[in-house]
Amino acid sequence: MRYLAFAFLCLVWGTTWVAIKISLEGLPPFLGASFRFTIALLILGIFILGKKISLKLCKRDLGIISISAFLMYTIDYGLIYWGEQYLSAGVTSIFFATFPLFTGIIAIFIFKNEESSWNKMTGLALGLLGVTIVFLDQLLSTEFDNQVMLGSLAVIFGAAGGALSVVLIKKYLSKIHPVSLSFYQMLQGIIFLYLIGFTLERSHELILNPRVIFSVIYLGAVGSALAFALYYWLLQKWSAISLSLIVYIIPLVALVMDFLVLSEVIHPRAVLGMLIIFSGIAFVQLDRTRLQKIIHKIKSSWH
Fold first, then answer.
1. How confident is the prediction for the chain on average, in pLDDT?
2. Taking the model in full, what pTM does it have?
3. For the range 196-199, what are the long-range contacts, defined as Cβ-Cβ under 8 Å and sequence gap of 24 or more?
4. What Rg do the C-alpha atoms of the chain give, in angstroms?
């Protein structure tokens, strides 16, 4: 069941990038994200009522959740939706793969949660190189289109905002029940999204055809509510490092689905950049103690 749940998460989160692209055919980015998380919030609320999960929080926690909600939903998801208007689903997923790299940067340099080391610094440098290659590939293939440049920067900045949100939660809110945390964060997050959507996108024509409606329902019910529930369940069974392997698989699924559903072809330079980003993530997550034990055993076997 654990491996099936892991495979399901990889498939679902790999296909959400294509679903976002389809939803943008009929909905503006911030309102599209708002509709998605409204569906997810309703499902989450029903689950909380059924399980009778307590939603009591202190004012201090609510304040931090409000900040994390703005970072996760307005900055992260809002900018990802906005940026994907001008990028393919596969390329968007590659840029978002920088999420763990930004998490490492924030944890090391801003909150001092972790010590800097050669493997983490190497990983961050490789990640930056990979992002640069993918970014330049997009500019070269689109002849330095301004919208593509802004869209790429928006997704990268969105990933940084989401990473900051996760570090804040890890540092200050780790004792809160994950379902309660998700409910309050999502509730405040969609308020921010709706405010921006109704302010900036009121004149945008909504095209609610079956294709767009299905993609929004899929994103809300399967890609958000069900997927996050499975993720938290797996997090209780597996280590965070094992579960983080999802980061490597999601862009690969997204690239395949992008080709099959939307007929997008990825350039070799972008694939090279993605592989370099993956190697950077691997270095950041490298367990030096475990590596030293492995090296010691290899040396012992030689003698």
1. 86
2. 0.87
3. 196/30, 196/74, 196/78, 197/28, 197/30, 197/31, 197/33, 197/34, 198/31
4. 20
